[in-house]
Amino acid sequence: MRIYASFRKTMASSFAVCRLHMRGRASLAKCLQKTDAFLHRSIGTDVVIARAEATRSDESDEKNGRKSLHTLHMERQEQAERSVLISCQSSTNEKKFLKYLSKHGEINKYFFYESYGVYAVVEFANQESVTSLLEGVAIPGGSHESAVPFKSRLLSLRNLGSVDSSNQLSGRQCQPQTTIPINELIKRLSREESIDKQISSLTEAYQLTEENSRLRFLVCSLLKDIATAYFPECTIKPFGSSVNGFGKLGCDLDMLLDLDSITGRNVKLPKSGLSLEYQMKRANSERAVTQSILSVIGECVDQFGPGCVGVQKILNARCPLVRFAHQPSGFQCDLTANNRVAMKSTELLYLYGELDPRVRSLVFTVRCWARAHGVTSSIPGAWITNFSLTVMVLFFLQKRTPPIIPTLDHLRDLAGPGDKTVIEGNDCTFVSDFNKIQLQSNTETLEQLLGEFFEFYATFPFSRMSINIRKGKEQNKPEVAPLHIQNPFETSLNVSKNVNASQLDRFVALCQESAWLLQQSETSTPRGGGAGGEGAPTPWGLATLLLPSQVAGIKSRKKRRREPASERIKGLLESLKNKNQLKKS
């Protein structure tokens, strides 16, 4: 009975649930009975030392203009807690909108965007302003008596005041949430004066904006409001492309339910005094606990999560997850738990991206090139994944003379006591203090690096060798697979195991073609056209690499012929010139 009473109290205080059916309540309580192993696990890290060193490292890095991922997370999470997401009418008067909200407190930042309607993200200066705002909101009446009045920070604003239809967009700019179409990108790149500027322009067009990053953390914060009904001190963090510095506008939002920060877990049980009687429930495995927790959270997201649709509980995957679409933000979301290796991978990629700006620019360029030619895909299959492609870029940069970025083993050797992390027997240790990392002087331009990247993998011995960023050198393949890329932390795994021979052959052929194109004067120098804004400029340099290719259906590298591709590109360029001339005439 005490379990039932505790569960009922938690639900009532967090959700203000009215007339929740007994059957639903009992099924949720049953799912909560397996959290012992999950909450008692250890990752081999001294939490006190780690936090102290992380604080010192963060302060040092900020002085040098670089923020650690930990600092970035803390800042964004604090901003998200002070923010609300508001659905607005398209004719909403911006001045009246701000005046109305300012009654509850000072506004730090706000912006509008479009996703199934017009929305505004509003960050207040103080948490109290959010409380004040929520106290005054109304819950829409409904004819169905069983409606659950769950209060969230997703609000709707109606009939505040409108502007003239002819002038409704003036003064209010909606921030982009997706990348520009590839054809528009090619035109933009074709107007640049150098390949280096083309790469910088592509990076600027594709990378996550400040506003999009804030929105991602806000969605995590809104989901946390639901999860705290069961785990009051939990956090939900974005990981992967949303925060590692390599995400592009429109990428999925991967989230981690983090229970490691719950207080009292690392406190020695006293001989006398208080302890939580119902904190732990026994389970036969950590995986079973993860599945139970995600099953409960998934059920709540489905039933109570405003704007969350298409909820799928994919609990039997290698990494159990809850997948859903968050319509107000337009994000496709995956929520996992106990996925600490993925979080360490996120930290590693973020660190590499912060070490040298050429890292991110080259990764964005190669990823865009790969997507334009179908080397990568948003659909699971035999394609090379974005993560595999990113690791290939990092490996290439480690192989430069001198290296542009250090190996993972070197980063591990620089680590301090607070950096030591062992997860399920896997050594995930690497330095977090940027000031301890001394880079070698490499002055290669982005244009040089892009051409060398294609040359490097056009001739790489994939049939014999494995890619390993931990060592920074090729190693004999430990298994029979067309492409072998060692997982940086779970070293027995091949992150590219899904890639088949035909996809690898196609990647190599495209590398050969792209390397050849960058060596041709016809395509590697600006061609003019459209400079005055009339007509489309002639593609050149990087823009040429994004044009459609006919490299397909290659069954073996021995049968590959380069001359037809060369002739095809020449013909394509001539066709583009003729079209431009016809437009001018």
TrEMBL record:
Residues 69-136 form the RL domain. It holds the Pfam family RL. One of its GO terms (cellular component) is mitochondrion. GO terms for biological process: RNA 3'-end processing. It comes from the Eukaryota. InterPro entries: MTPAP-like_central (IPR054708), NT_sf (IPR043519), RL (IPR041252). One of its GO terms (molecular function) is poly(A) RNA polymerase activity. Gene3D superfamilies: 1.10.1410.10, Beta Polymerase, domain 2. Residues 195-353 form the Poly(A) RNA polymerase mitochondrial-like central palm domain. Residues 553-585 are annotated as: Disordered. This is Mitochondrial poly(A) polymerase.
